[in-house]
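User: I'm preparing a small set of examples for a lab meeting where we compare how different chains pack in three dimensions. I only have the primary sequence for this one, and I'd like the structure in token form so I can line it up with the others. Please keep the answer compact; I'll paste it straight into my notes.
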Amino acid sequence: MHAMQYELTLPADYDTDVVRARVSRVGHKLDDWAGLGLKAYLLRERGMHGSPVNQYAPFYLWNTVEGMNAFLWGGPFQGLSDDFGRPVVRQWTGLAYEEGAAAGRLARFAVRRRRPLPDGLVYAEVAREAADEAGRLAREDGAVLAAAAVDTSRWETVHFSLWEHGDPATVKADGDLFQVLHVSAPGRAVLPRGRQW
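Assistant: Understood. Below is the structure token output for the 197-residue chain.
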């Protein structure tokens, strides 16, 4: 599994309905993308649910690098870059993936938490703790799924989880809270479960 995300931070007065309309228009195009585990189309709105910014920030879990490269180099990403400018694309190597207690339900919110790893840690413990946290999140009431990954160029872990709750106050994960506009999940069923080493 390979995780990927880019963030498009938009002006404070930006009409976020433009993003919603775009996702409604083009979101289905990845519903059958080869190599894609899932893509969550995510939005934060300034002043809502504690967000300081307007931001469109899709999060991906890839089953294959070929699928990811076809997306980045084969067309769809070009259209986004042409419309919004080329964003930095963050990538993490998968550590763990778990289906959640509410796996069959519609995801309404997502939480992403990035954590820098200081020097002096025992790498095996870091990986085990990240996988354990993904498992803990997945067992929480309302969790649709949870994943953990690491970027060794920055020594940073990321935890990503989807939640079916209509009230974000009931989400039991810490981090940046996003609204989920759409989920494309053609290969979700074959994302490798559990720890990935």
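A couple of notes for your slides: The chain has one domain: 2-195. The two ends are 11 Å apart (CA to CA).

User: Perfect, thanks.
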